[in-house]
Amino acid sequence: MARKKAKNEKSQPSNELRSLPPAPNQRRLPLHEMHDEDFEEILADVSEKEPGIIRAELKRTSGVEQFGVDIEGFSDDQKPMLVISCKCYRSIQPAKLKGWSNDFLDHIGGHWKEKGVKRFVLAVSVELNDDRLNAQIAVESARFKALGIGYEVWGLKKLTDKLRPIPHAIAKFFHPGWLEAIGAATAMAARANLPNPSGSTANSTATAQAAQSLSGVAGAVRQRLGDAIANQLEDALCRCVP
Predict the structure, then answer these.
(1) φ and ψ at 102, to 5 degrees?
(2) Which of 126, 127, 88, 80 is nearest to 104 (CA)?
(3) Do 21 and 39 share a domain, yes or no?
(4) If you ran DSSP here, which 8-state letter would residue 119 be given?
């Protein structure tokens, strides 16, 4: 992830992520307040939940070129079919999108040749409700399509939606109050309490996985924030389950 940014565009990491949300029922996670490295880490967690991806790796080795991406998501035949460029910004200008595309496309005939890349994702910590941004997204999509590669932009809404089902990833970096604020705790508690009238293996497996995720959230919070806050989270999750 490039470190030199235009003035006032780049996010400044905030300690408020460890505090309670300023108001209940927040619709978006404040991802723009994360450290660059933490933003990449949480995106790696998201990547491993994408269809066809069995593992995700950060391209963060010191002194080794990244070729325009921060994360590679590997398929079962060990090809990086998904690559993600992570940009933790407070705001972005349309011209940035072209430059970030070029960072990858400049190596399409070299490093990425015959690597099996199918999807290029630009993950940004901003809303995408801007006509100029969306016009540039269409331009970039056409550039990638001509090369047989899908182009996607994950903005703040999509990233929050993708993180909601994996609360253990949220709990690593945010106060547990955010789980309840965006509905992640309630959603996971509901999954853990799914009825299983047929006694099917599929339903039993889903329930077990949800319960394991709930346990993982509490464990992540306990490791990062201590027993007191972890116990509060566990109590809140118990209240969510009838």
Answers:
(1) -60, -35
(2) 80
(3) yes
(4) E
Give the C-alpha separation, 12 to 186, whole Å.
30
Single out the residue of 88, 79, 16, 87 nearest to residue 52, CA to CA: 79
48 and 96 both lie in a single domain: yes
Amino acid at the residue 225: L
Residue 101: domain span = 15-160
Tell me how far apart the alpha carbons of residues 224 and 45 are, in angstroms, rounded to a whole number: 17
pLDDT digits (tens, 9 = 90+) for 164-202: 999 999 999 998 888 888 887 655 554 555 444 344 444
- pTM, two decimals, is 0.75
Q: 27, exposed or middle or buried, with CB in 10 Å at 0-12, 13-18, 19+? A: exposed
Quick check: is 47 in a domain? yes
The count of domains in the chain is 2
For 9-27, the pLDDT digits (tens) are 766 666 667 677 776 667 8
Q: 40 in a domain, yes or no? A: yes
| DSSP conformation letters of 22-35 | SSSS-SS--GGGS-
Q: Report the candidate in 143, 142, 154 with the shortest Cα–Cα distance to residue 85.
A: 154
